[in-house]
Amino acid sequence: MIIFCFWMLVHAAQAQEETTPTRLTGLGKNISTIPVALLDQCFPYEESKTFGIEFRLPRTGGKCDDGLIICYPGSLATRTLDNAHSLNGMSVNSELFNVDNAVNNSLGKYCAGLNVSWHGIKVNTEKSNGKNIIKLSTSLLEEEEQSFEIPDAHRQFIIHFGNENEFSAYVTVEGQRIDLDVVKAEQYMQLAPNGAHLKDFVGFWTLGLDMLPWMDHEVKLFINRSCSCSMEAWFIRPTDGEPNDPEEPSTGIGGPKAKCIVNTTKEVPLNNRLKANHLIRIQMLIDGNALDNSITFAILNEYRNVLMKFKMSTGQNATIQMKWPFKPVSIENANLPEGNGTRHADFIIALTEYSYGIVMNKKLLGGKEFFPAKWTNGLPFNDMKSLWLSGQFLLLTDPLVMPFHMLGQQNYKPQEQKLPYWERISIVQPDTNVIFRVKLGQNDNDFNISLLHNRIDLHKSEDSIGAEVLTLRVQPEKDQIWRPSRTGPVPILMGEAKLEAQKAYEFTLVMLKSYQYKIILGNFYFHKNATMPIWATNFVRVEGNITLLGRPEVEPPPEQQRTYNFSIQLKRPLDYNDTIQLKLNTQDKTKNLSILLMHDALRGNNEIGGVVLGMFFHFDGYKCTLYCSSVLSADPVKEDTGIAEVKNLTGIVDGRLNKYGQKFDMDITALNDNFKIHIKEVKLTHLCPYPESNGTFYPPWAVDYIRFENDVQVHAMNIMHPPTSEQRNFMQINDTNDLVQAGDLITVKLAITGDLNDNSSVAINLFHQALEFNEKVGKTVMKVMLNSASLYFNSSKPLINNSTNERNCTNGKLDKELKELKIGVMDKGFFNVTLTWNNDSSTTCTYTNGLPEWAVQYITVEHNDVTLSNPPNIICVPEKRYDEEPENHSTGIFGKVGRIVTVALAMSSRLGGADATRRGGAVYGRNLKSNQLPNNNWMAPPPPMAMRSAKVYDSKHSPAEYLKKFAQDFRRKTGMHSQRHHEETTLEQEKRVAGAGPDPIHHQDTTLEQEKRVAGAGPDPIHHQDTTLEQEKRVAGAGPDPIHH
């Protein structure tokens, strides 16, 4: 090595700066030229740094049975200069160091075909005694000794071309050194002074002498990697850092004419290895440029019938089909990876005791597991005999079966939920199913299933947030389910329905009408009345000592073509000076049309929310009249009717609309004291005052839903905001990304300038359903206010025994040097507030009397007699849970923050242009999208569709009679009935065991025979026959069988 380094001193050395390893195996790559400075190895700046080549298989598994070949110009190969002289890498006219390819070595012949002086090495994987091994070969040795097995190398190893002390090549595996051909190297070192020829002792130990250049300053390499080889290789230098695994595994190109990814059909025996909490892992490469690729996996029984089939295609939603019934279930937003070139797809088919989970590239498709019919009996593991795969792909490894948890690694996490569990759900409409799948422990383990409104736990008197819509208390030991009634909990007589320990069950709640629901348990069902409107549900909760087998599943009702009586939820609350812009038109011979601005409700009712503003147009002959009213559930009910009073906000005015139909634009602007209604086409301007309840006026931000009823077509809708400088400073909680919880941090940065006085104050409010304090609307979760004397806390938490929620902290106060205020969220309504001044001194006060932290929806900052150089800056952690207030003049309520954004509402089963599903009469605005348009543009309206009322009003009445009739009809349509109407029936009347079905007179429902679900008798055997594999064979290229489909 001393001679070698002395020789290298002749050549200039490059400065040693950290460099990047050269990847030799990128997609489509087969030639690499790497600059080298050989003195870097003689004088490495880090111990053990050398020249070499590192080989790795993917961490997720891989193989290289056909081998990875690297050809290179041999520094020891003989080159002819002229008739009298020859040259190798070390000397002229000396045969002492000449080493050529072995005569009968096929690898040598391959590399020599590139250039006569080129040599080569090859790395490949093999199966030996059931294990994967890695072998290294060289073109310098004859066939019988050219291959060397790398001990303990299963994924990675490095060939080092000597080091600062020696020139013999060696291997390391996970940092452990393995010497190559030790005997040959020692023999040569002993005999070299006597003129021994290197070719007589050549072996793996000479790879460094042969691969590193002696005269040039670069290494040239040619790489051949087959389609089936996923091994990666890097040329490393002493100055290189650690190579990084590529983000996605790749394979070679297999030559210029080879195509790696082709139509493939493969069946793999499972050998009875599948059982509960095991998975099948399938790793493949696909063509990201393919326009019509389709991948199919199927688990087959011994008769090659399909038990489960998964199909994923380019540009289409994936589907999963499971036995009984064998009907495709669409998996939203699940498509094959697309992009230029080859893409990696790492699939997992996870099998729990009862369900299938499909994972692709670490993402659970559909965000849930899939349960077949009759899932409570468990998956048919004993029938699962083979896995069938079809499509255009290249398998990186054979499919592997392994447990979810193996060798300390969690390969898949089942979707079982820890109790108590709560979750926000979408709007519940008639015919919506909410499914809970549970497994019982011991029979004496009771549990609750709850439907909640604006809260995540059962109702508590100490917080007064939201409402408990429905709670079912299940007692397996007694085979009883307790339901609420207006007189207290009432048991449901379950008849033959039994609950057994260690068994799984599916509870389905079917929402029938506003105050009616149905419980389905296996083959049994029970109709019941509710005490609260079911549509108010926006959270579900499960608690008890049981196993919740997955997230509760909401099945919306079938999309309906009717388009009347629907509600839209606003993305953000209406505020002062906001304008609702509507593009509408009436039908020919219109009788009535209604536009309702709702608070906390989809429709009018007597328990939750109310109608802040109802705008009613009535046509009597050629005359159109307009009338404004409100109905507030906060008002006391009338003794004679048992419902809240409909309040007239204005008298009847001329509505001016054309009975025979006309298009018109309506603007509804929230002014300081009233709503202004303006229809420019008929020059109508009408003011409707804000409703009042017990001396308190409802503000515009009480409006969070808009409802359209009767004969009206809605083409587009937009909300116009005032300039940013005139908007309220607030932050909205993004409750689609969880709610505020313990550990969150809210920071308000202040920049106070000017003098302060005794009236100066700054307040930070954490509100629920409010943008400022109001006696009737919303709650204050926690308020912290600073003035020149102290720091004060307050909240809307109900008082007990004349107690107070107010607290002051004299350690903190408002002054010009105050830099920021931090609110640390704790549990159970506890908050830590820390004040920090410009000199970085700070003080902390704790408030323990707030409302639950999860109730926070809006954060506002108010200041009085305080001059700020900049508006208060609110910073929240984690950031994803909080939405900053938009800094724009107009925000489409369904669109992204930007300029005027309008939404076309195609009045059909879908709201066209807004991508919002109307589920039986409601649109959940948070999920809607729209394009952003310039300020003077509206989205092109879709074809209009009529919105007909359920009943046509009789117009032959006086105005007073009409108003009375209208109020009665309004109550009927909006579900506002007296308490007497919803009184619970007696136990005898409610006795409707599943065997006999509901009282057909009382419910006008189908009988049990008509209601029989799949779980009881199974699907129609003729219609749902199992298909054989031959019938199911549909190679991706050919598409589906047109006869079968």
UniProtKB/TrEMBL annotation:
Gene3D superfamilies: 2.60.120.200. Keywords: Lectin, Signal. PROSITE patterns: GALECTIN. Residues 981-993, 1000-1014, 1021-1035 have a biased composition (Basic and acidic residues). Residues 1-15 form the signal peptide. GO terms for molecular function: carbohydrate binding. Residues 566-720 form the Galectin domain. Residues 238-257, 972-1045 are annotated as: Disordered. The keyword Signal applies. InterPro entries: Galectin_CRD. This is Galectin domain-containing protein. It comes from Globodera rostochiensis (Golden nematode worm).
